[in-house]
Amino acid sequence: MALEFAAFWAVTYFASVTIMISVSLVLVEINKRHPERKIQARPQTHSTRKDLISSLKQNMVTAFCLTIGIFSQWKGWTVTPVELSWWSFPLFFAISVILHDAWFYFGHRLLHTKAFYRFHKPHHMTITPSVWSNDAGGSVDTLFAHSYYALILFVLPMPVLSFLAHRLFDQVSAIIGHSGYEYFASRTSRAPFPMICTTYHDQHHSEFIYNYANYFSWWDRIFGTIHPNYDQIVQGWEANGGTRPPMPKAKHKANV
Ligand SMILES: [Zn+2]
Ligand SMILES: [Zn+2]
User: Fold this and answer.
1) 137 φ/ψ sector (left φ>0, alpha ψ -120 to 50, else beta)
2) How far is the CA of 136 from the centre of ligand 1 (A)?
3) How far is the CA of 205 from the centre of ligand 2 (A)?
């Protein structure tokens, strides 16, 4: 059985790394053609090589979590999944994305407390994130975000295809979220809509204490941790036709 598990893990790792490298390379090429869409004016503050080496390591941890979930369902150790159909696929995909966003938000808030920040600090060495920064960090940090994939199939009867589609969406959106270039600023990525654009997580890297969520802004809005200028900056991108807008003066709240 250990060999079977190792084979699943190896395939999952290979798939994760392939997606990471191919999506990142495509984005790098697109970004080269659009310097006007760069979110931060300052130059990159960290080493791409270090990010890449760290990402290759952290993908082992992520693949391990994914393998626990997939392997356990395959063996019949989890709750029995609902049969795959035209309605079960999107329904469980949506449920899983919403649940993971909550998991990520509260775990991320915990990682920013005094007791846990040391595990998250390596990821925050990146002030100006790039496509290669998404997975860069420490293993405890990665486990906080991705242990969800090891556990969720034990409580949610999700077809494995919905599970894999969610992970693919998570990986691609997170690479875009770290890319440092804005393509998704629109009316639906700001209040009153819960969607977000690339600026959202970029602000988390440049200012540390805002925008903790992964896919939606609702938890940050409810708990008052959304960047005070986020909506205004998104409007600026729209008004400026996709070119970096003049940044509004900082309007920080005290003691967030
Ligand atoms: Zn953080
Ligand atoms: Zn990040």
Assistant:
1) left
2) 12
3) 6
Can you tell me whether residue 46 is helix, strand or coil?
A: coil
* pTM (two decimals): 0.93
Give distance in angstroms: CA of 213 to centre of ligand 1: 9
pLDDT 10s digits, 166-206? 999 999 999 999 999 999 999 999 999 999 999 999 999 99
* Cβ proximity of 130 and 48 under 8 Å: yes
Decide if 128 contacts 153 (C-beta within 8 A).
no
Contacting residues for 231 by C-beta, under 8 A, at least 6 apart: 190, 191
**What distance in angstroms lies between residue 133's CA and the mean position of ligand 2's atoms?**
7
- Length of the chain equals 256
Does 256 score more than 70 pLDDT? Answer: no
Phi, psi of 38 (to 5 degrees): -65, 130
Tell whether the model's pLDDT for residue 253 goes beyond 80.
no
As a whole number of angstroms, the distance between CA 178 and CA 173 comes to 9
pLDDT on residue 252: 62
Residue among 196, 192, 191 nearest 211 (CA): 196
Rounded Cα distance between 98 and 251, Å, is: 30
Which residue bears the tokens 């003049």?
Answer: 246
Distance 124 CA to ligand 1 centre (A): 6
Helix ranges (DSSP H) in 45-138: 48-75, 88-111, 117-120
